[in-house]
Amino acid sequence: MAKEELPGVLVLDVGGTHGVLENLAVLLKKHFHLITMKEFLGNKEEMSKRIQSIFVFECRPVIDQGLLESLPNLKVIGNSGVGVDHLDLRMISSFGVKVTNTPHAVADPTADIGMALMLASARRLVEGNVFYFPGS
């Protein structure tokens, strides 16, 4: 499928402080034509027709009514995190747009860290480390 035939996905940026991670962008590019917010704002008339989805990474880009009104072909907002508290689901659904997220993406790692912290606390691991290895 040619780049122009792929559905457009709006992302804040690729790389940098708040952009989509580079390796994630590579995966997205297999299925979507990535459009950064800078590209979108630079040519709203053309880009707004191409964008069918928005990929929200670390709560960005911010989804507000103005953005939704400017994207007539928007079908879905994909949130890369577990929660959707930062999204106004009622407003988004009023535009006929669906929202997805990854509810179980970090369940196992969170449980692992929780268990590790409980075991470390019960066995006084941090205190022992400082006692046996001062200055570490």
Question: What structural keywords apply?
Answer:
136 residues, alpha/beta, Rossmann fold, five-stranded parallel β-sheet, 7 helices
In short:
The protein is of the alpha/beta class and 136 residues long. Helix content is 41%, strand content 15%.
Helix/sheet category: alpha/beta
Instruction: Quickly name the level 1 CATH class.
Output: Alpha Beta
Low-confidence stretches: none
- Sheet with most strands: strand arrangement: 2-1-3-4-5
What is the H/E order? Answer: EHEHHEHEHEHH
- What is the CATH H-level superfamily? NAD(P)-binding Rossmann-like Domain
- What proportion strand? 15-25%
* CATH fold type: Rossmann fold
Number of strands: 5
Protein name: HPPR reductase
Organism: Neodrepanis coruscans
Keywords: Oxidoreductase
InterPro entries: D-isomer_2-hydroxyacid_DH, D-isomer_2_OHA_DH_cat_dom
Word description of this protein:
It is a single chain. 41% of the residues lie in helices and 15% in strands. It has one domain (8-107): Rossmann fold (3-Layer(aba) Sandwich), CATH 3.40.50. By secondary structure, it is of the alpha/beta class. A 5-stranded parallel β-sheet has the order 2-1-3-4-5.
